[in-house]
Amino acid sequence: MLELYDRLSKESADICGLVLTSSGLSFKSRKGLAGWSIWVDERHYPDARRVIARYFEENRWSPPLPEDVPVSKTRSSYAGVWAALLLAVFYFFTSGTLDGQTVWAAFGASAEKIMSGEIFRTVTALMLHADMAHLTGNMAGMALFGSAVCSVAGWGVGSLMILFSGALGNLANALVYQNGHLSIGASTAVFGAVGFLSGCQFIRKRQAGVRRFAAWLPIAGGLALLAMLGAGLHVDITAHFFGFFSGIILGVLFAVLAVRPPNTHIQAACLAICIFLIFFSWGWGLF
Length: 287
Fold this sequence. Notes:
Blueprint: E1 2-8, H1 10-22, E2 27-32, E3 35-40, H2 45-59, H3 79-97, H4 100-107, E4 109-110, H5 111-115, H6 121-124, H7 132-153, H8 155-177, E5 182-183, H9 187-207, H10 212-215, H11 217-229, H12 237-257, H13 264-286
Antiparallel strand pairs: 1-3, 2-3, 4-5
């Protein structure tokens, strides 16, 4: 049998069952930790989807999630603003005390160096910027999209997801170029944040029973932002794309695995891991 819907309230599961029964389609309902689910025979799955979709359209109704599963609950967070200020600190330290070209060569996302084992560059490159215009744009993006991610996932989990998406984007970029390519800047992580929000909202909409086309709108919106803001002269579009794609994967995983918002202990642990990875990466590069 195939799962038709999951995480339903008891009332929603009963309504789905009545609709299927009235159409002569057999089903099974099961109660799990996250709510009720509806299962149908694999042969009847297309018919069941069509019947339920028709009911939704005629009655303008979609199955709500259980009240005790706060999947859409968000809390305001300004963690992205703090991250943006951290980027400014790194910029003024490196540009004020060291030669920019030397720092980029030592800590930038050099495809050849990353492929030779200097993985720390996937993290350190996110904190280097060419000039004030480059820094200002990425600070604005981090403050906006980084804070949005942390409002959804929490200040610790969100910070770690943004760092991971940026690092994975740089790593994927290095795998594509292999050599002869150097990039710097937090924009890979910024688009990772955009991807995280897109992937997370896609899953949330699917879990809420939103029609398939509408559920894809967050992904389309993220791609539109990538096209508008992530391309241009002297812009590493492939790094932006890989950061965005990495963010989508992390957003999907978070939405699927995090039935409830992570608690304070998990947030603190994730933030500690994030800080450790940053210091470890810079320490690796220095020593």
